[in-house]
Q: What sequence folds into this?
């Protein structure tokens, strides 16, 4: 075998491998494809998380509004008081506080006599109360709390109030109006958002109206 044949064999042998430039180009193409695929995956995850938080928020808000609507529809003597309501009865409270409409500006409670009869003596319609508390401390949104009178001889106190809104739901504003009539009508609107990150936030604005089925005489 001559020297030319040996060189030719070596060239053929080494020509079967990848060159450095080919390796760099392959890695660059793979990196671009990987980045694009990862970006699409992150968008899918973000969209799924946003859909879950929205569903959780709407489920929670619908539950709160439906609960209020159901209870107030068969209630009577709607009143609004500044701060948390505490006491045994609604006697002496101003029934027209919410008649002109109230916006989110201060601690307020919606109280009314429910259809549930409490033990006495004498017997009474137990009081239900929904309180709206403004943001404070680490709470960046409004809090909605509910209290139920346990018996006619037991007054509602601050310890009876419990939050009814999920902590993931940030309530930023509300509107309330009660039209006092023989059959009172209440309109309430709640607005806010869900989602910790700005790009994942979903904003909501829900409202409902309730008309009492029972005649109320003030």
A:
């Amino acid at each position: 075998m001559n020297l030319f044949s040996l060189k030719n064999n070596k060239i053929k042998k080494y020509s079967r491998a990848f060159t450095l430039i080919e390796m760099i180009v392959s890695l660059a193409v793979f990196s671009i494809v990987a980045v694009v695929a990862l970006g699409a995956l992150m968008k899918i995850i973000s969209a799924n998380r946003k859909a879950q938080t929205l569903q959780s928020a709407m489920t929670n808000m619908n539950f709160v509004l439906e609960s209020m609507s159901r209870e107030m529809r068969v209630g009577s003597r709607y009143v609004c008081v500044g701060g948390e309501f505490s006491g045994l009865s609604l006697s002496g409270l101003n029934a027209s506080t919410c008649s002109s409409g109230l916006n989110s500006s201060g601690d307020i409670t919606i109280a009314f006599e429910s259809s549930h009869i409490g033990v006495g003596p004498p017997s009474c319609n137990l009081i239900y109360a929904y309180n709206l508390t403004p943001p404070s401390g680490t709470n960046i949104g409004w809090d909605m709390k509910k209290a139920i009178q346990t018996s006619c001889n037991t007054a509602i106190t601050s310890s009876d109030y419990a939050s009814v809104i999920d902590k993931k739901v940030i309530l930023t504003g509300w509107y309330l109006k009660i039209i006092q009539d023989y059959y009172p009508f209440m309109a309430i609107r709640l607005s806010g958002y869900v989602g910790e990150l700005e790009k994942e936030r979903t904003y909501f604005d829900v409202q409902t109206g309730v008309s009492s089925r029972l005649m109320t005489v003030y």
